[in-house]
Amino acid sequence: MASSAVLEQIYTIVAQIPEGRVTTYGSVAKMTEGATARMVGSAMRHLPEGHGLPWHRVINASRRVTEHGGAVRQREKLRAEGVVFDARGKVSADLLWP
Question: E-assigned strands of 1-98?
Fold first, then answer.
């Protein structure tokens, strides 16, 4: 698991992702000092209850929602914000942030 300083960086970045936009685990990692894409994924998986962070706006490098226990909920939350998935489940590159 990432250090508390790296986790704080990850959370700060994720909090800035605008509604209706997405970014990748790797992009978040590149904006930190030392995180990897896997660390970002782990941080999203282990968020405390009631955190309020837009975790659902972080997707994988192929611009798809990674299959996990919350994947259906993640897609629903993104669709509710106007994010459209193509026939292969990909999000348009136009929606990538930053």
Answer: 23-24, 58-59
Please check whether residue 7 is in contact with residue 26, taking contact to mean a CB–CB distance below 8 angstroms: no
Domain carrying residue 44: 4-95
62, amino acid identity: S
**3-class secondary-structure state, position 24:** strand
Which CATH number goes with the domain that contains 73?
Answer: 1.10.10.10
Report which of 53, 59, 60, 57 is spatially closest to residue 15, judged by C-alpha positions.
53
Name, in order, each residue with C-beta under 8 angstroms of 16's C-beta and a sequence gap of 6 or more: none
Query: What pLDDT is attached to residue 48?
Result: 87
- Find the range with the poorest average confidence among 12-16, 44-48, 61-65: 44-48
Number of domains the chain contains: 1
Residue 44, token pair as written in the block? 């999203």
